[in-house]
Amino acid sequence: MLRAALRAIDETDSLRPRVLISLAAAEVQLGHRDAGFALLDQAEALAEPTDVGILLQQRGLLLMLVGHLDEALRCMDAAEPLVEAVGEPFRIARGLLNRAMLHDLAGRIRAALADLDHCERIAEAERLPLLLAKAHLNRGHCETLIGDIPAALRAFDAARPGFAEHAPGLLPVLGVDKARALLAAGLADEAATELDSALALLAKSRTTHERAEAELTRAQTAIAQRRPALARAWAKRAEQRFRRRGNETWAAVAALTVLAADFEAGRRGVADRAAGLAERLAKLGLRTDARLAGLLAARACVAAGRFDDARRHLSMRPISRPSLDIVLSRCLTLAELAAGQNDTGGVFTQARAGLSALHRHRARFGSVDLQTGSAALGEALAGLGLSTAVRSGRPSTTFAWLERSRAQAFRLRPVHPPSDEETLDAVAELRKRASLARTAELAGHPDLATERRCAELERTIRAHGWAADGTGEHDEQPAFREFAEELDAAGSCLVSFLVDREDLVALTIAGGRSGLTRLGSFATVTEAATRLRSDLDTLCGRQLPVRVAEVITASLRYDATTLSDQVVAPLAAVLADRDLVVPTGPLSAVPWGLLPRLRGRPVTVAPSATTWLRGRRRPPRPPSGPLLVAGPNLAHADGEVHAIAGTLPGSTALTGPAASVAATLNALDGAGIAHLAAHGHHEQANMLFSRLDLADGPLMAYDIHQLTTPPEHVVLSACDVGRAIVRAGDEMLGFTAALLYGGTKTVIAGVARVPDDAVVDVMVRYHRIHSRGTPPAKALAEAATGEPFIPLVCFGSG
Questions:
Q1: What is the mean pLDDT of residues 672-683?
Q2: In what order do the strands lie in the sheet with 680-681?
Q3: Structural Rg of the chain based on CA atoms
Q4: N or C: where does the chain have the smaller number of CB atoms within 10 Å of the terminal CB?
């Protein structure tokens, strides 16, 4: 179309320079660098004085696209007063937008935000919706770089309507930037999903800068997913595209990603190549990337035992206001250097500094999803600190590092998810469609279209939650002595499990003494635990042939005995007759009460020792009438609720249609004790949507975060909802975790399928024993003694 315009006008037409300027941009976007700048030269020879500012703006933009950042800035700065003198608001705003992009690329984020503020004011006043959407997009990218992920995600949400209406072709670009923000929050899998969608759309277009940038971001995401071969393939593809377009700046950034993938894969020669690339990136004006390349060179030198070379690379001049990834990378490199030189104190100093920076970053998030996901960013630092503590042989030091690296999200003040109109509508639709999907499933005719829509709604609701700001408030980690004293007062022993190399290690604290015990192969223990849960699921609720049932029962007993012998027997002298407290860790889903050596012994599973202690110290609430809820399609639920009501006078029982989501949530808010007998579903892929089936739809883990005052004590007589996803940093997510995160003191829940016929008597006994003042963990141990295969666990503070 631009070429047709040139043919339609003669050499003296005043429009000709502007057509040439636009055509120049198109040529450079297609990788025809020399042709594009030649067209700009033609335009310059024909330009009227009023077009000079526009010409300089365009030259600056194209210089930026080919990586000449300093020249680009000179052109854009020179253009600004000339365009303002002509007085075209659109041209002024667009120039500010492009200069903000340039400042962003060069790491001058404050300058970029100042230009975006000015651009947005003009775009709003002049009603320029597409330009405003682009400004929101760039703002989101800047907020990502300074670590304010909720603000970044809000900016991306603000940009979407403008793109959807006026430039749908830019939606993939928005997806790429949103993926960067999710990656900066530690949600690598979610970032990969965004990028795969964006790349599918970009693949339909010609090779563009945006496509190459998306491929580069996909490579960086693959590194975070620990898939270095995939990362290298994406990064090499992006590097080749940038080079074909003549953009050496972006090609250098892609080359850095290739080297990062090579380092993760254990390839040789990374150190010297990274050092050379650091110098090249610095000359190109990319200070942040140059610093990352230098740190990569230093890490590679440490891995090769070249400690003097590593120190030389670390001596690079620091940059002001370094991003979180630079802070964490530098701390990790210094910690690895200290470890290589057997400097235990140096390891601890650097690991503490990095994790403190990460904790400040995490405190800005209101979403539990982001709070828990961000632990992945510090996983290597936490692991190095913990392994160094184990090798020191000092239990108190190991305990401090376990608590520093485990379930940190539980120490932050909870924030309620957004309750905007769009989110509320999505939740309402999800509840309705999930109920329809469940009905179809029970009828034996799964509704795949409805299930797909449910998945879309879950993603929407989850994404809205990411935009919530955190309070910045958190609980401090108590001292080792405080834990030891509270354990003695409770007559308990703490056993905290961790993995060191390939061994399972137990840290024990009991009777004022602490110790570290190696328990052997972690793989053997996890295999037995997995088989045990699988056998429990197979036995539950099925009429199996007698011989098959006997084989599965024998297998179940064998695995329970194996776990008991591997994990409990070596600690017998320390445990004595004490109750057991187990922070989640690598054995989060073991049905402890089924292990022969723990039959009848109270066991409490807590997200961390810190959360256990906090719950123990919290004063009990004034007593209130128990809440009892029976869900649908469960043969014994109503009978269970009525039997428990006979044990607990003053109970409120919700059964049949009365057991709706709204009624249950209303009664749960501030309840003392609540018992829910319902079908439960653990969602492996989307943990906020683990749920209980109620009369009119699912009660989800997401809903629990909406409660003003969570119930004090909850009993979930349901399958699976005691299971949790344990993310990096031993961060729990799931239905039980949602209750504990919100402030519920104790939850009784199953870590496998629960037989609804056999569990009724156990639940009635439990409530009878607990109502006499017996603590939950002890009441559960006593109530379940006569039933060998009830996989209920006491979570929280016992």
A1: 87
A2: 680-681, 691-694, 697-700
A3: 30
A4: N
pLDDT higher than 90, residue 365? no
Place of tokens 């602490």: 514
Query: What is the residue-wise DSSP string for 492-506?
Result: EEEEEEEEETTEEEE
What is the pLDDT, as a whole number, of residue 210? 87
Averaged pLDDT for residues 60-67: 85
Q: Alpha-carbon distance 248 to 259, whole Å?
A: 16
| pLDDT for 307 | 95
pTM: 0.81
**């309620």: which residue's tokens?**
416
Q: Nearest 5°: CA angle at 347, between 343 and 352?
A: 150
Tokens of 556: 């179940």
| pLDDT over threshold 80, residue 683 | no
Instruction: Please answer whether residues 653 and 607 qualify as being in contact, where contact means their C-beta atoms are separated by less than 8 angstroms.
Output: no
Contact present, 788 and 594 (Cβ < 8 Å): yes
Residue 165: helix, strand or coil by DSSP?
Answer: helix
Query: What is the full DSSP assignment across 472-491?
Result: --BPPPPPHHHHHHHHHHHT
CA gap 533, 690 in Å, rounded = 18
**CA dihedral in degrees (147, 151, 155, 156; nearest 10)?**
60
Question: Which of the 8 DSSP states describes residue 532?
Answer: H
Pairing of strands 503-510, 492-500: antiparallel
Looking at this protein, which amino acid is placed at residue 292?
L
- Note the pLDDT of residue 470: 78
Q: What type of residue sits at position 374?
A: S
Q: Residue 309 corresponds to which amino acid?
A: D
Q: How far apart are CA 69 and CA 284, in angstroms?
A: 7
Strand runs (DSSP E) across 613-757, as ranges?
627-630, 652-654, 673-677, 680-681, 691-694, 697-700, 713-717, 725-727, 731-733, 746-750
Listing DSSP states for 558-622 in one string gives: HHHHHHIIIIIGGGHHHHTT-EEEEE-GGGTT--GGGSGGGTT--EEEES-HHHHHHHHHSPPPP
Assigned token pair, 234: 């994406």
Q: What's the whole-number mean pLDDT along residues 656-676?
A: 93
Beta strands 697-700 and 713-717 are unpaired
User: Residue 245 in contact with residue 212, Cβ under 8 Å?
Assistant: yes
What is the model's pLDDT at position 775? Answer: 94
Dist. CA 522–CA 500, nearest whole Å: 9
- Bridge pairing between strands 746-750 and 713-717: parallel
Buried b (16+ CB within 10 A) or exposed e, 678-697: bbbbbbeebbbbbbbbbbbb
- The sign one gets for the Cα dihedral 201, 204, 210, 211 is positive
For residue 601, report the phi and psi dihedrals to the nearest 5 degrees: -100, 135
- Quick one: tokens of 400? 């401090």
CA–CA separation, 135 and 557 (whole Å): 63
Q: Residue 461 and residue 702: Cα distance in Å, rounded?
A: 9
Q: Which is nearest to 154 in space by CA: 420, 471, 358, 426?
A: 420
Angstrom distance (rounded) from CA 349 to CA 589: 33
Q: How far apart are CA 693 and CA 710, in angstroms?
A: 19
Q: What confidence category does residue 789 fall into, taking pLDDT thresholds of 50, 70 and 90? A: confident
